[in-house]
Design a protein that fits this description.
With about 800 residues, the chain is α/β, with parallel strands linked by helices. The protein has 3 domains: about 90 residues, no CATH class; about 350 residues, Rossmann fold (3-Layer(aba) Sandwich); about 325 residues, Glycogen Phosphorylase B (Rossmann fold, 3-Layer(aba) Sandwich), CATH 3.40.50.2000. Helices cover about 50% and strands about 15% of the residues. It has 34 helices and 24 strands. The strands form 6 sheets. The protein has a 9-stranded mixed β-sheet with strand order 7-10-11-4-1-12-13-17-18, sandwiched between helices. The chain has a 6-stranded parallel β-sheet with strand order 21-20-19-22-23-24, with helices on both faces. The protein has a 3-stranded antiparallel β-sheet with strand order 14-16-15. Helix 12 runs antiparallel to helix 13 and helix 21 crosses helix 33. The chain is globular, with a radius of gyration of 28 Å. The two termini are about 15 Å apart. Bound molecules: N-(trifluoroacetyl)-beta-D-glucopyranosylamine (NTF). The site of N-(trifluoroacetyl)-beta-D-glucopyranosylamine (NTF) has 18 residues, from helix 7. N-(trifluoroacetyl)-beta-D-glucopyranosylamine binds next to helix 7.
Length: about 800
């Protein structure tokens, strides 16, 4: 096994680097070594940023040792691996999570303390890794945490975008990599060539072809080690960056043409420069398709190279490799595998197809038509000519089968085809993903059912579809963000085991009836609210009352998520307060309405909603008539680390999408786990959450998914006045139009969407929303009852851990087993 030098020398050297997890001095040694050597600084000129960097590098050393052990162990064992392909990875900060997973938080806290720094302050020096927009990207982050924790052999693959999400009001791009990122390891030796454009020559009497010419660049690997919780296993997240094949053209430089000498370099690097800022919205830009292809081609070349080291025939690939596609963004990898097998490895077409369709599985995350990817055929053909040919063949074979099963049903063939007819034609990526995958799943029970009964009705037999309800990691979303509640759980259960077996928290459900426990639970909530209040005060200069109900709607701005319903409810409340007699005022529950989330830069209506929230906040928060009855907060630059402060402080989880539109939602899970009561529609994972916590512990509202279509139809084709649909909403609109929150004309386009078609049923659900809020207020008056329901919510959330989701994938889709690295 040992390949270079003297094994004993290697072994002794590696052991000398080992630091015991309780060894404060040993940890301090490694931190100081990075201060003096890596950073070339000393105690005298070390600021908090430097101390953070040295600490992070020291933790990274620990992670890399485990990463190395995991990789060599898995290389030796060669288990079947899952590769999780996601174009977004919303990781957030790493330091705190890493020391918790390594069980070294106390040691690092003491060591940095002794070196003169406060560990909490160092944590705040870290920039969020925000390679994602919303739930889809954060889901990938939770899943890789669970894969590592469950000891499942698996890697993540993504893109290393230099500039991540855009700040909403300022639209300042976030060049998050302009500081050194201690958590990534550049692997300049791991790189693959990627071709774009060019021409295709058929090879006569074969299904092979030669694709040549066009532009070539390189995809270079950056690895991010992902520690499991309480295990040695450390997964890998491999991110690809585009680089030129030749960085610098010396001939142009010598000829005096400086621009041309670096042109190819910056052209290539532009491919992975930006993260597309849309959530649930397809943009259709060539650069995005380039990103997708570079990422998929590099990942496949990497996966196949690893497989080829086993010296096995191609038809055994599915015994060693399963690729999970996080939405349709990586769908081109199906075609890329076909291309490599057919053109480069000379595998016959049918054999290649048999292999490919045993390797891929596809997760759908949305039914919204505007989010479904379909590439204009001319654009696609120009960029990836050989891939289009292969798609034609896949489609022809697929439609032949359909025609055999449903002779003469041309309409069905048109609906099912991977190519959408029209001018131009389009390549429908979801259809391609379904045809090329052995399993397709939705992300919550209702969503998976809707996929089969509506948008993909025709496309796959029953056993090809399944459901895997989303989950969130309890390590970040409880242990890390709410340490006091985590400690209470551990103390009451007498062990930490619930952190890897979340079902166990259900044992605490009877504690809802224990007055002492309720007191402790409520104190923690109040402390968390006070912590948030401090942040709001110092960052936004805003005072909020910790005794008020904190309602939280924290998610991307989108019409279907209906921040409007919440906002109009606030205006309704404001008008009510303004009219109330002193007697009536006493009965009004105090609210702090918290919004956080970004709008895509080009999403006009979503930005108008932000504008109205901010202007309502300005008026309401400064109106002496309101006093402390109502505060409205919009938190800019929403991020994972902001969420970590908000979620433990929430009393109410606002989840009010139009029924049938939110595939799952995941903030509903995080908020529930931290004791926020669900105020929500019967949509996405709300359905399963309400089922588990019990409907009497949640506030459900609005039309049901099954009725939405009829109401929507009637809004469009048998329109009634807004006054008839909802007199309360009509009054709210009048106040806006009258200029109560600044120039009313500004909001006309927003209000018009609701006056006219009201596609998302805001007016139809407004009455029901207000009624649900009234129930919330009534319950709040009885704090003991409220706390009971809060406890029953938190401890009924045991199913919504990403460990359960990932285990579901492993059992029902991936067929992979845990392969724990032995503890010495
Ligand atoms: C999102 N989909 C859904 O809108 C959320 O309901 C869900 O919780 C997350 O995925 C994670 O499953 C998308 O972002 C996309 F891309 F599909 F539109």
């Amino acid at each position: 096994e040992w390949t270079v030098g003297d094994a004993q020398t290697w072994k002794t050297a590696i052991e000398a680097e080992q630091v015991d997890k309780d060894d404060v001095q040993g940890v301090a040694n490694t931190v100081v070594r990075h201060v003096t050597t890596t950073l070339a600084r000393q105690a005298g000129n070390l600021d908090e940023l430097g101390a953070y960097q040295a600490t992070a590098l020291s933790v990274r050393d620990q992670l890399l040792k485990r990463w190395n052990e995991t990789t060599s162990y898995h290389t030796k064992n060669a288990p079947k691996r899952v590769y999780y392909l996601s174009i977004e990875w919303l990781m957030g900060r790493t330091l705190d999570n890493a020391v918790l997973n390594l069980d070294m938080r106390n040691t690092y806290e003491s060591a940095t303390q002794k070196l003169g720094f406060n560990f909490e302050d160092l944590l705040n020096e870290e920039r969020d890794a925000a390679l994602g927009n919303g739930g889809l990207g954060r889901l990938a982050a939770c899943y890789i945490d669970s894969m590592a924790t469950l000891n499942l052999p698996g890697w993540g693959y993504g893109l290393r975008q230099l500039i991540s999400s855009t700040g909403e009001q300022l639209e300042a791009p976030d060049p998050w990599l302009d500081r050194e990122n201690p958590w990534e390891i550049p692997r300049l030796d791991v790189s693959y060539p990627i071709r774009f454009y060019g021409r295709v020559e058929a090879i006569p009497n074969s299904s092979r072809a030669i694709w040549s010419g066009g532009n070539e660049c390189l995809a270079v690997a950056y690895d991010v080690p992902i520690p499991g919780f309480a295990t040695k296993n450390t997964a890998n997240l491999r991110l690809w960056a585009a680089r030129p094949i030749q960085g610098f053209d010396l001939n142009s430089f010598n000829a005096g043409n400086y621009e041309a000498s670096v042109a190819s370099s910056s052209d290539a690097e532009n491919i992975t420069r930006v993260l597309y800022p849309n959530d649930n919205m397809y943009a259709g830009k060539e650069l995005r398709l380039k990103q997708q292809y570079l990422w998929c081609s590099a990942s496949l070349q990497d996966i196949l190279r690893r497989y080829q080291k086993l010296n096995l025939p191609w038809d055994q690939l599915p015994d060693y490799v399963v690729i999970q596609m996080n939405d349709t963004h990586p769908t081109i990898s199906i075609v890329e595998l076909m291309r490599i097998l057919i053109d480069e490895e000379e595998v016959p077409y049918d054999v290649a197809w048999g292999i490919t369709t045993k390797v891929f599985a596809y997760t759908n995350h949305t039914v919204l038509p505007e989010a479904l990817e379909k590439w204009p055929l001319p654009l696609f053909e120009n960029l990836l000519p050989r891939h289009l040919q292969i798609i034609y063949t896949i489609n022809m074979n697929f439609l032949n089968e359909v025609a055999k099963r449903f002779p003469g049903d041309m309409d069905r063939i048109r609906r099912m085809s991977i190519i959408e007819e029209g001018t131009p034609k389009f390549v429908r990526m979801a259809h391609l993903a379904i045809v090329g995958s052995f399993k397709v799943n939705g992300v919550a029970a209702l969503h998976s059912q809707l996929l089969q009964s509506t948008i993909f009705r025709d496309l796959k037999g029953r056993d090809g579809f399944t459901n895997v309800t989303n989950g969130v990691t309890p390590r970040r979303w409880l242990l890390q963000c709410n340490p006091r509640l985590a400690q209470l759980i551990t103390d009451t259960l007498g062990s930490e085991h619930w952190l890897v077996n979340l079902k166990q928290i259900s044992q605490l459900l009877p504690m809802a009836d224990n007055a002492e426990f309720r007191h402790a639970f409520r104190e923690i909530k109040i402390e968390n609210k006070a912590r948030l209040a401090d942040v709001l005060h110092s960052e936004l200069g805003l005072s909020v009352d910790v005794d008020s109900i904190f309602t939280c709607q924290i998610k991307r701005l989108h019409e279907y998520k209906r921040q409007t319903l919440n906002l109009f409810g606030i205006i309704h409340r404001y008008l009510r307060i303004k009219k109330a007699t002193p007697q009536e005022r006493k009965k009004i529950a105090k609210h702090t309405a918290i919004f956080a989330g970004k709008a895509a830069p080009g999403y006009y209506i979503a930005k108008l909603v932000i504008r109205l929230i901010v202007n309502v906040a300005k008026i309401v928060n400064h109106d002496p008539d309101v006093g402390d009855l109502l505060r409205v907060v919009f938190i800019p630059d929403y991020s994972v680390s902001v969420a970590e402060v908000l979620i433990p402080a929430a009393d109410v989880s606002v989840q009010i999408s139009t029924a049938g539109t939110e595939a799952s939602g995941t903030s509903n899970m995080k908020l529930g786990l931290n004791g926020a009561l669900l105020l929500g529609t019967v949509d996405g994972a709300n359905v399963e959450i309400a089922e588990d916590v019990g409907e009497d512990n949640a506030f459900l509202l609005g039309h049901l998914a099954a009725d939405v279509e009829a109401v929507r139809y009637s809004n469009s084709y048998n329109p009634t006045s807004l006054e008839e649909r909802s007199p309360e909403l009509a009054a709210v609109f009048k106040a806006i139009e009258a200029g109560t929150f600044g120039d009313g004309h500004v909001y006309e386009p927003l209000l018009k969407t609701i006056y006219d078609h009201d596609y998302y049923l805001v007016s139809n659900d407004f009455g029901s929303y207000l009624a649900a809020e009234n129930l919330v207020d009534e319950l709040w008056a009885d704090q003991e009852e409220w706390t009971k329901k809060s406890i029953r919510t938190a401890f009924a959330m045991g199913s919504f851990t990403s460990d359960r989701s990932v285990q579901d994938y492993a059992d029902s889709i991936w067929s992979i087993e845990p392969d724990p690295v032995p503890e010495n």
